[in-house]
């Protein structure tokens, strides 16, 4: 395997498009597909070929990368691609698919002779565009030389969690990490909502915690997005956050753990989406604290 390879990216939303561009900038030959071709078409300006079907996209690929909405969507797309996939082609699966979803995808990979890499990423639009994602990866040592150029192009660091992608160790770590991110996002929104309700200047709160153990960069950045009305384009959309929150709750239930904060976060994201904020940044869960007319 040479340093420059042919990579197919299936799914060109916020994350997938950024990953495809960084792969092309690294010198790899990239072909992409998206369910809505119009969303993928701008990638042609970066020298990326856009295919009409998943099968067309994966022809001749050295590595296939999937970055779709959820597990079922990914399984549907990879089934469409299967007739054109060469046995032995490494499959990097970066969708946050949940524990059950990853098991289903790994089973498909096994049936079709595809080395499977469970490789979700931590990060939102900005680090994705900068190629600074954290890649959480599990998969066979034998083919890591093939997928490492992909990870190096899209991420600042790769954390290997195991040699069996089917075990879902990387996905399980991603769910744990996302549980913290989503809880923190909900807390940011509630702090600002309560400040508004009590007629407290948010800056007084920031001044009170400034430089102390309660201060954090994430609080500052998400608060600024709300207060400055910078919720579009989304760094990570409300609808996607809701999907991930429900995956986290389900994972807890299936393993005998009650996750009250995650359940509350899922309800807040669902409510914000119902209010029309689904495509805005997940910080827009702030609006779930108010009646729609407010």
What does this structure look like?
- With 294 residues, this protein is α/β, with parallel strands linked by helices.
- It folds into two domains: 6-167, NAD(P)-binding Rossmann-like Domain (Rossmann fold, 3-Layer(aba) Sandwich), CATH 3.40.50; 172-289, N-(1-d-carboxylethyl)-l-norvaline Dehydrogenase, domain 2 (Orthogonal Bundle).
- 49% of the residues lie in helices and 13% in strands.
- Strands 3-2-1-4-5-6 form a six-stranded parallel β-sheet, sandwiched between helices.
- The termini are far apart.
- The mean pLDDT is 96.
With helices defined by DSSP (H or I, 4 residues minimum), what is the helix count? Answer: 12
* CATH 2nd-level architecture of the largest domain: 3-Layer(aba) Sandwich
Globally, the shape reads globular
Write down the oligomeric state.
single chain
* Estimated helix fraction: 40-55%
Sheet with most strands: strand arrangement:
3-2-1-4-5-6
Taking all Cα atoms into account, the compactness measure Rg is 20 Å
The major β-sheet equals: 6 strands, parallel
The first-level CATH class of the largest domain is given as: Alpha Beta
Q: How many domains make up the coordinates?
A: 2
Which sequence of SSEs, written as H and E, runs from N to C? Answer: EHEHEHEHEHEEHEHEHHHHH
CA(first)-CA(last) distance? 58 Å
List the uncertain runs: none
* Secondary structure category: alpha/beta
Total beta-strand segments: 9
């Amino acid at each position: 395997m040479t340093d420059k390879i042919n990579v197919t990216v299936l799914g060109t939303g916020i994350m997938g498009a950024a990953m495809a561009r960084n792969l092309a900038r690294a010198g790899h030959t990239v072909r992409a597909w998206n369910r809505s071709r119009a969303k993928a078409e701008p990638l042609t300006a970066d020298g990326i070929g856009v295919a009409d079907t998943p099968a067309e996209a994966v022809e001749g690929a050295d590595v296939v990368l999937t970055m779709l909405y959820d597990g079922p969507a990914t399984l549907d797309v990879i089934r469409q691609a299967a007739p054109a996939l060469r046995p032995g082609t490494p499959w990097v699966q970066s969708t946050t698919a949940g524990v059950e979803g990853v098991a289903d995808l790994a089973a498909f990979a096994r049936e079709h002779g595809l080395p499977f890499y469970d490789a979700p990423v931590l990060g939102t639009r900005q680090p994705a565009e900068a190629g600074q994602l954290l890649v959480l990866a599990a998969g066979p040592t034998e083919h890591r030389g093939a997928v490492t150029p992909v990870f190096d192009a899209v991420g600042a660091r790769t954390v290997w969690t195991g040699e069996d992608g089917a075990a879902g160790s990387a996905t399980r770590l991603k769910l744990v990490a996302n549980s913290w991110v989503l809880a923190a996002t909900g807390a940011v929104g509630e702090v600002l909502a309560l400040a508004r309700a009590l007629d407290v200047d948010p800056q007084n709160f920031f001044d009170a915690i400034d430089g102390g153990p309660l201060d954090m960069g994430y609080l500052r950045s998400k608060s600024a997005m709300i207060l400055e009305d910078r919720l579009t384009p989304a760094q990570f959309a409300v609808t996607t956050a809701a999907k991930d929150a429900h995956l986290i709750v389900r994972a807890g239930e299936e393993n005998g753990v009650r996750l009250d904060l995650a359940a509350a976060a899922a309800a807040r994201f669902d409510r914000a989406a119902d209010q029309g904020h689904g495509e805005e940044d997940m910080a827009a869960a702030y609006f779930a604290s108010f009646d729609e007319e407010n």
